[in-house]
Specification:
Layout lengths: L5 H11 L30 E7 L4 E8 L2 E2 L5 E4 L6 E7 L2 E6 L4 E8 L2 E2 L5 E2 L8 E6 L5 E6 L4 E8 L2 E2 L5 E2 L6 E8 L5 E8 L7 E9 L2 E2 L5 E4 L6 E6 L5 E6 L4 E8 L2 E2 L5 E2 L8 E6 L5 E6 L4 E8 L2 E2 L5 E2 L8 E6 L5 E6 L4 E8 L2 E2 L5 E4 L6 E7 L1
Antiparallel strand pairs: 1-2, 1-35, 2-3, 2-4, 5-6, 6-7, 7-8, 7-9, 10-11, 11-12, 12-13, 12-14, 15-16, 16-17, 17-18, 17-19, 20-21, 21-22, 22-23, 22-24, 25-26, 26-27, 27-28, 27-29, 30-31, 31-32, 32-33, 32-34
Amino acid sequence: MRKISGLVSLAVLLATGLALSACHSSRNSTSTGSAPSRSTGTVAPTALAFVTNSEAGTIATYTVNNGQLSAAPTGVTDTEAASSPRWITLNGGFAYVANMGFDDVSTYTVNQGTLSAVPVSTTAPISGTSPNKIILNSAHTLAYVANLAAGDVSAYAIHSGLLGTDPVSTTVPATGYYIAGITLSPSGDHLYAVYFLSSGSSGDGYVASYTVTNGIPATKPLSTTAVTPNTNPMGIAISSSGQDIYVVNTGTGDISTYAITNGVLSTYPVTTTTPVNGSSPFIDALGPSGRTLYVANQGTGTIASYQISNGLPAATPLSTTNAIRGSAPFCVVVGVRGHFVYVTNEGGDTLASYAVTNGILSADPVRTTTAVPGSGPLWIALAS
């Protein structure tokens, strides 16, 4: 039986009868062709991957060599199982970890690929907020934290790599809704958030845009766009041009694209991909060039790639990987050069990497790494 991951999956279970979860974003290349082979000679030989294990309460460090993760972690940092570490974001020599169980965010130092054994600072806990995602502004002077259960976004100042104890601003809570994800416009002038119903079975939701002034999001939305009923919006990403928003709908198994004008989303999607039966898409990630969109399908245990043309994803996938038994892919991260995609498989307690050629994923992983049994690997942060 698939695991139910914390508050996110519980909320989705209530809304749709499915146990699902959430993740990360990046950007890539495109085209069509035959099944790809592994890229060689153009990939940085060694990098690092930091993975949060929500059920074990740990953060594991893996080496990445030509797209392959080490068979076992090179280091493990304990955070206490009750903390339920979710999202991890890197900022040079620092790592920020959202602790859903403790309602706070911890800062760790990163020294030669090793996280400090204990946090060097931790934000003040705010009861019932359940922080779930962390993104940074381009100057890395502010961190935006999406608080799943509270339905709001908090901004924290960053001083010498450390997050302030208390937020410098917080948006007005969306009563009755959970916040599934957030993203910033390329200019940093607008912040976008996707919300889904936290109770009932309708699976309704909406996307909100917030004006950002001097790095601080407005407390109230500039605009809100209601999604089609029963779609269960969960993932959100923005095009490299900042003119389109992509929303992953777990309920209807498709991706909706909304046009953006002066920070305001169109009332209705300008396009929607064809549903893939039983796929339950959950999160999306853009390749480095912004021409390929990758989606984790928890229902089928696969990863699909969609070619983007003129800002719009193709109606059907460019490629789809073979399912890994019991995988329940949770997080999809694209390598900085776009040659590999890395995936956490929460259901199977594994990590997988796939080769990418012209936006097409290899049918099978080039490497599958077994995580600690029962660890519940969720998010990946890559450091070159």
